[in-house]
Write a structure and sequence with these properties.
Layout: H1 2-15, E1 40-45, E2 50-54, E3 60-61, H2 66-78, H3 99-103, H4 114-125, H5 130-145, E4 151-152, H6 154-163, H7 165-176, H8 184-195, E5 197-199, H9 201-212, H10 227-240, H11 246-252, E6 257-259, E7 264-269, E8 273-278, H12 289-302
Antiparallel strand pairs: 1-2, 1-8, 3-5, 4-5, 6-7, 7-8
The structure holds 6-diazenyl-5-OXO-L-norleucine (DON).
Family: Belongs to the glutaminase family.
Catalytic activity: L-glutamine + H2O = L-glutamate + NH4(+)
Binding site for substrate: 64, 114, 160, 167, 191, 243, 261
Length: 307
C-alpha cells in the first residue's frame, strides 16, 4: 500500500513545477472558470484498490474522455456494424477538424474526434429520446465506477450548446452525407451532455478499470465487455485518443489514453491499472500539459509502457 502512495508522491513532486502550464480551454465559457493550478491523480489496480493524490476527489468536466464510454456502449448496441459509419484510423488532425469529411464521404476517421463521437451519439440515440440515451450513458458510467454520485453538469452542456458552431457544422455536414440519422439538434444535445459528465479522478479511474482488466470489473467481477473488445478499444485509444498528438503521447507515455479539454486523461495500463489524471492547463493540441507529464513520469517509474 505504502509503495503506491510513495510512487504517487514522487510523481507529484516531479510534476509540481509544471502544474499551471498551458491554457485552460476557453472556447466553452463554463470551462474557462476552472482554476489552472489544480492537479489530481488516481490509480486503481485490478483488485479495485484506489490510490490517489492532490485534487483527485474534485469533480471536473470529463469532455472527450466520455467518448470511450459511448463507444463502448455503441459497440454493445450495434456491434461491428458501427465501423460502416465511423473509421478506426488516426486522423492526424485537431479534434474538431472538418477537412477530411468532404473527401471521405461524411465518414469520420475514428470515434474519438468530434465528428466520430457525434456519429456514435447518433447511433445511441436511434430509437430513443435524448433523455433516455443520456440516462443510459449515465447509468453505464455509474455502474462501471460503482458510484451513483456521478452527474451531468447542465451548465457546461448549455454553455457548449451556445458556442458549438463547429460541432453543429460537423453534424450538419455529416447529415448531408446521410451519416446522421436523427435530427441534428437532438444528436448534438446528447453529445454536449455526455461531454458535460462531471467526475473526479477516482471515479474516472474506477470507470475505466474494465479496459485494463480484459473487459472485467474489478477483481474477478462481471465482464462489462469481452476481452477482445477491450483490446480493440485500447488500440483505438493508443492510436487516436490524443488526436494529432496521439503519436507524441505513445512516444512519451506508451499507454492507451483518452484526453478531454477539461484537462482530464484516462490512461490504461493493460493488466495492471487504470489511471486518471486531471490538470486543466492544456498544451497546443488541447491535451492536459501537466497531466501528460505526470503520466510520462509514472510510466517511466513503473515500467508500464506497453513497448
Ligand atoms: O466538442 C467539443 O469540442 C468538446 N465537448 C470536447 C472536446 C474535447 O474534449 C477534445 N479533447 N481534447
Amino acid at each position: 500500500m505504502l509503495e503506491w502512495e510513495q510512487l504517487l508522491a514522487s510523481v507529484y513532486s516531479d510534476v509540481a513545477p509544471y502544474i499551471g502550464e498551458g491554457k485552460v480551454a476557453n472556447y466553452i465559457p463554463a470551462l474557462a472558470k476552472v482554476d489552472p493550478e489544480k492537479f489530481g491523480m488516481a490509480i486503481v489496480t485490478l483488485d479495485g484498490s484506489v490510490h490517489q493524490i492532490g485534487d483527485a476527489n474534485e469533480s471536473f468536466s470529463i469532455q472527450s474522455v466520455s467518448k470511450v464510454f459511448t463507444l463502448t456502449l455503441a459497440l454493445g448496441r450495434v456491434g461491428e456494424s458501427l465501423w460502416k459509419r465511423v473509421g478506426r484510423e488516426p486522423s492526424g488532425t485537431p479534434f474538431n477538424s472538418i477537412v477530411q469529411l468532404e473527401s471521405e464521404h461524411g465518414i469520420p476517421r475514428n470515434p474519438f474526434i468530434n465528428a466520430g463521437a457525434i456519429v456514435v451519439a447518433d447511433t445511441l440515440l436511434s430509437g430513443h429520446q435524448p433523455k433516455e440515451t443520456l440516462g443510459e450513458i449515465l447509468s453505464f458510467v455509474r455502474y462501471l465506477a460503482d458510484d451513483d454520485g456521478i452527474l451531468i453538469d447542465a451548465e457546461v452542456a448549455r454553455s457548449e450548446q451556445h458556442t458549438g458552431f463547429r460541432n453543429a457544422a460537423l453534424a450538419n455536414y455529416m447529415h448531408a452525407f446521410g451519416n446522421i440519422h436523427n435530427p441534428v439538434e437532438k444528436t448534438l444535445g446528447v453529445y454536449y451532455h455526455q461531454c458535460a459528465l462531471s467526475m473526479n479522478c477516482v471515479q474516472l479511474a474506477k470507470a475505466g478499470l474494465f479496459l485494463a482488466n480484459n473487459g472485467r470489473l474489478a477483481n474477478e467481477g462481471h465482464h462489462a465487455i469481452s476481452a477482445e473488445r477491450a483490446r480493440r478499444i485500447n488500440a483505438l485509444m493508443l492510436t487516436c485518443g490524443h488526436y494529432d498528438a496521439s503519436g507524441d503521447f505513445a512516444f512519451r507515455v506508451g499507454l492507451p489514453g483518452k484526453s478531454g479539454v477539461g484537462g482530464g486523461i484516462l490512461c490504461i495500463a493493460p493488466r495492471k491499472a487504470a489511471i486518471a489524471v486531471w490538470s486543466p492547463g492544456l498544451n497546443a493540441n488541447g491535451n492536459s500539459a501537466a497531466g501528460t507529464r505526470a503520466l510520462e513520469i509514472l510510466a517511466k517509474r513503473t515500467g508500464w509502457s506497453i513497448f
